[in-house]
Amino acid sequence: MVQLYNLHPFGSQRVVPCKQEPSHFCCGQDVLFVASTAASCKVEVFAVHEQGRCEALGSFATLGPVLRMAHSSTGDYLVTIEEKSKATFLRAYMNWRCMSAGSSRVCVRMVGHKMEESYCETLKEQMSVVEMPLSDPPLCISCCPVNGDLLVGCKNKLVMFCLKYRVINENLTVLDFERSLILHINNLIPAEVAFCARHIAVTTELDVLMLKLELVQQRADRTEQCAQSVSAPEKAVDGGVKDESTSTDPLQLELDEFIICQKPVELLGEESKLCEIPITLESTELPTEDTKHFQVRYLLFRRFAPDQSPFGFCEETKLHSVQLLPVYQTGISTTAYEETENKRKLLSLFCFFSLPYVGYLYSIGKLVELISTYQYSEKSEQAVLTPQFLHVITSQSLQCFTVRCSAAAARGEDPYIDTTVKACPPVTLDVCTLRMQLFIGPRAICHFKNHIILLTKADTEDITERRKPTRRMLSRKTESIKSRTNSESEPGWNLYIINTVSTIQLYREMVDYSRTYENVKTESCIHLLSEAHLLVRAAMMDPHFFKSDEKEDLLKAFRESCAFLGDCYSRFDTKDYHLALPYYRMSGLSMTEVLKRLVSEGDEMQTYAKGFIFYLTHSLNEDSNEELSKESGNKVLQIFYLADPVQLPHILCSPSMRNICPLRAVKYLQKVEKMMPSAVLTLTKAFLALKMGDLTMYEQEMDSCKETTLACGFIGQPRLLHQRKEGIVMPTEFAVHLKEMQPGLLVAATVALHENRKIELEEADTFFKMLCNSSENTIPQLLVDFWEALLVVSSQEEILQELLLRVTSQYVWRISRKQLPETKPLKTTEDLINSCHHFGLIVPWVTSIMSVGCSSDKDYHGDISRLQSLLCSQSINIASALPILEPLTEADNVGLTIRVLSSTRLGKYEEAIDQLLRRCPDAAVFYAQHELKGDSQALWWKKLLPELCKRTRLTGNDCPVLISSLKETLSIVAMELELRDFLSVLPEDGTAGFFLPHLLHCSQGKLLT
């Protein structure tokens, strides 16, 4: 559906002072080229200034009448198809600007022809005409706006000429062409071609084919590079492609008196290969190391059927105005386009073509998709596409339609644009006609910058109608009018330069126009404001935006249009009400400013739409630095109480609501609690009680729920405990109070927040350090309590290992520095062992070692036992923990237990036995009884027995501990070994009387078994 609005995109118009009737025209960077009719073979050049003012620069002769012409901004050359003696010629006019400077020198040369030395010094002052011979007559041409390459359409082929820069000497570089590629396309006679960034669109009367030339890697076999065949599959498309039985000679069709019309078909992307139009690439450039090799990728094929009526076929059903429109990426750098336009990065590409009554606009990107269809009220003659508008001429008018290029390009640049932060009107938004400007006999149109060039030519009957006399003079003046119509004094044609109004001016008109629909047609109001927004967005995507005089005005208009759209989605009851949030964010308005726009002062009965509530809810639930005034905050409380009371507890926790009246907030909460009680509401009331200093009310609220319920309540609203300011987690007054009065609840709540991904581990560290006023490198006991509590519930292996290393490091730090925790730990070692499997039971031999330790360690028993318990479990990665354990030396029993535990966890039992025998032989047997099992049991007689015998022999009877350990060891060994094996491990120089009881025990034990 096409929306119709009566806006004014066209401003002033001026007549181009052409001396003779134009046949063709096109626009350059700042000039207009006008080719005269067949009577005169020349091209006039006009400079176009601001507001469409024209100035004749001069003219130059052509070989014959111009049939087609095009200008390339890259290279600044004009290319024409000319006719002479019933033959057509392709010519490119280089350095044509010197003609306007008064120079009459012209150099005519063939393409690729080597420049003669005699021309070298004068090439700067002369126009150069490059003739490009072709084996078949040229039918249509197109210049690539990105790199200046030229594409020529001939029967059954497309020829590509690459623009080259030939260096004559250090002071002179001239432009030339090189015929580089031929695309052979069977059974295709191109009517029009479009060429942009290796994308090719070609149309016949009823077919559209779009291709892309893709670079391929160089292959060794150069014969394969010269010709590449791209053939479509043989399978026919249902109703869209004819097979060989229908592909007969036209003469045969005439003889049979049949006209075969194929059904319409549309093939997009990979499916377009099924069009059965084979393409063969022929490389014609001289092969070098830098030669580029291409392959063809099909993008789009569409076939239309002629219009039918009871009287036959309409011969006027033909495609026209095929165009490729590039949209460049802007905004990357403010200096990106000051050096050269060649550095522009292509963002999106659009393809347009039209039938007499319908136009089609496709987006060409990763996907090829139809984004807009244009229905014309009458038959179109020609159309021209710009990033902002589609201008169409009919037999009586110039029409201006909106386009969706900026919306599609914005999504191509940012696929995630439709979020809570950013938004853009949809590509599927209905197109609209801004204006239908009446003209007599529009025939041709082109566009550049903010100008439309329009050729009108009135037929005889048009002029007659225009000059038709009044009724009372009709009988006397009719004959004279007819004779004057046919005279030379009434040429009947004009070439206009129509100046389009500035983007800002048209934007203002659209905004003013939208206000007429505010209270009548909601969708029309949003539609017009969306059009205004897209108009400004398209202007900001222009490559010259950063150098534009309207830059600041456009940025202001962009923010303003976002604010207007935010107002619409906030006020109106629409299905897309959520868009109020991103549009207000893009507008840069603060919450206070939005409230002033939407909330009427003193209106207690005002209703609020879902979009406004959605915006307020999200804005207040985020960590904003904006603080509402007391009046604004109280108004927000009233709005939510009336519109969405469930959100009240969450809204009250917002940093923006710091200045509200707590007593009024409590009254609102008490009313809500009667309908919908919750733990979050209870905690919020307690929070407000603290704010008012009412400790009695605070205790009543906190005592009304169990501690576990309250901990879960903090999950529903974490900002009761902490709020973010500039990305840093800050504790609230509530958290400070809990730290002093209920530290266990505070730790439990923080653990619950972490497990529910409401706070990260590093954020929790910062939170507890700020809460306890600790320095950056100091770890408060409350943070250690949190780590220990998190070890109990966490199941993520990475986090567990991180926590284990952290608590280990803190235990070691306090033990090594004789540092007591500043507050009493929430849990004892026994509590941790009973509740957390990461803390293991302390083994007996550790207890044995510690029993003979010095009394000074008793003050740090909690940290020591925690550390030993951690190492007694199998959870901690001991290899990672070794550097942390390094500060604990072997000078005392604590260090010995840590060393032996570490060696045991690493499987170094012999090293552990040596350490014990050297430092605490009393515990050696206890250690062996607990650790030397399974595969390590042989160490009893291979390691421990020999070592005890050796040490006993050296000390004699002076060490009863070694003797008792040796006896215990012999008892274990005697029980485990055969008699022969037992005898083999006994020392040869031992006393027989000492070992005799064990030998007897060993022999008796084996006899019993």
Overview of this protein structure:
The chain has 34 helices and 37 strands. With 1009 residues, it is of the alpha+beta class. Among the domains are: 452 residues, 7 Propeller (Methylamine Dehydrogenase, Chain H), CATH 2.130.10; 153 residues, no CATH class; 52 residues, no CATH class. This is HPS3 biosis of lysosomal organelles complex 2 subunit 1. InterPro entries: HPS3, HPS3_C, HPS3_N. It comes from Cyanistes caeruleus.
Features:
37 strands, 38% helix, alpha+beta, Methylamine Dehydrogenase, Chain H, 34 helices, 6-stranded antiparallel sheet, single chain
| C-alpha geometry | elongated
Give the C-level CATH assignment of one domain. Mainly Beta
CATH topology of one domain: Methylamine Dehydrogenase, Chain H
CATH H-tier superfamily of one domain? YVTN repeat-like/Quinoprotein amine dehydrogenase
What is the helix fraction of residues, given as a range? 25-40%
As a percent range, the share of strand residues is 15-25%
Computed CA radius of gyration, to the nearest angstrom: 45 Å
Helix/strand/pairing category: alpha+beta
Segments where pLDDT lies below 50 for 5+ residues? Answer: 220-255, 309-313, 332-342, 463-490
Kindly report the spatial arrangement of strands forming the biggest sheet.
12-13-14-15-21-19
End-to-end CA span: 101 Å
Helical region count?
A: 34
Pfam family, one: HPS3_C
InterPro entries: HPS3, HPS3_C, HPS3_N
Protein name: HPS3 biosis of lysosomal organelles complex 2 subunit 1
Organism: Cyanistes caeruleus
